[in-house]
Amino acid sequence: MASVASRCSGLLLLPGQQHGFRRRSPAPFCLHPWKGSRRPGTLVCVAPPDSMEPKTDEQDVKADMGEEKVQTSSSTSQAAAENPPVPDKDLNRRVALLSTLAATGLFASQRLQLGGFSLKDLAANAVPYEEALANGKPTVVEFYADWCEVCRELAPDIYKVEQQYKDRINFVMLNVDNTKWEQELDEFGVEGIPHFAFLDKEGNEEGNVVGKLPKQYFVDNVVALASGDPTIPHSRAVGQYSSAEFRKVHQVADPRSHG
User: Fold this and answer.
1) Are strands 139-144 and 170-175 parallel, antiparallel or unpaired?
2) CB contact burial 208-222 (16+ within 10 A = b; e otherwise)
3) Spatial distance between the Cα atoms of 231 and 224, rounded to a whole number of angstroms
4) 139: helix, strand or coil
């Protein structure tokens, strides 16, 4: 019995103190003693914790591979930090081109929303004032300025009406910043712009409208002129306007200019 006990490392449990062995208590491996007459104790060998099954070669290889992956990942991160990516010049050019196209498209869309016409378009198509007074047609004279917000806002509607009646009516544009028209400013009593004067075919003023008004006011007056009516329906209407006192007087580069 003593020789068996010497070969077992772990622990043995006896139902009492027999043969010089001490009883360990409590222990999960304990065997209950027999009742009645005593019987010799039974020895149980338990493997010690350090006697675990050794790792196989495959497990060692997997562990080594895991360490290699960690080292590789660390090396990659360090290399990326030391060598930042070089900017792609082609990509930058594409982004710049797309930005330019987007800005151009925005400008075009805003122009279309305003009807696609400006004061410059109206001035380019306008009939010279002296010619309008001599050709025997009724005339609409607009006093305006490039800095006039209301003038710019009304330009698309005025252009549309002009295109419809330009064969029967003269449309004249006189820039209040042009010192050439000082006499006309006084003659027509221009204090606010846009100022629209409606003249019959002899050049006599039938009435005027000033500032921002419903489009129909302008249309009704033009129709009355084109029809040869002795009067116009809206002869003294005033809406929101810009004061002519704020005009920026400048020297005329071309005295023959009608704008």
Assistant:
1) parallel
2) bbbbbbeeebbbebb
3) 7
4) strand
pTM of this structure: 0.55
- Say which CATH topology domain 119-246 has: Glutaredoxin (3.40.30)
d(CA 152, CA 146): 8
How far apart, in Å, are the Cα atoms of 221 and each of 137, 164, 234? Answer: 15, 14, 6
Tens of pLDDT, residues 67-84: 555 455 555 555 555 555
Cα–Cα dist 151/129, whole Å: 19
Name the residue ranges covered by the structural domains of the chain. 1-49, 119-246
Tell the burial category of 250 from Cβ atoms under 10 Å away from its Cβ (0-12, 13-18, 19+).
exposed
> Confidence class of residue 227 from pLDDT cuts 50, 70 and 90?
very high
Catalytic site residues?
148, 151
